[in-house]
Amino acid sequence: MRETFPDLCPDYNSGASISHDVVSVSFGDGYEQRMPKGINNTQLSYSLSWSGLTQSERDTLVDFLMKHGGVTPFYWTPWDGQTQLWICEKYAVSPKPANYYDISATFTKSYSL
């Protein structure tokens, strides 16, 4: 059973990135035909950050992401309110003064079953 990402809201300045994977064939004289590459050709990712986390909050996020290891999808709900499966292959933890921490991560939409 898939797990749900911990209930820690990312910073407001976190944003989405969308790209489409397409196949393009040029026929000459400027003519070109384009089509989607596969049935799930839209790649959606969010660049997220959490600032001023306590050590406990940091441990909660890092433990969750380590457990999933960039392989196992998890449920997360972005700002549009639609819960979907996501993968996090890369994240960074930065210590700050007074035992606070910042975390940045990239969540990529997963089409896994």
Automatic annotation (TrEMBL):
Name of the protein: Phage minor tail protein
Pfam family, one: Phage_min_tail
InterPro entries (UniProt xref): Phage_lambda_TipM
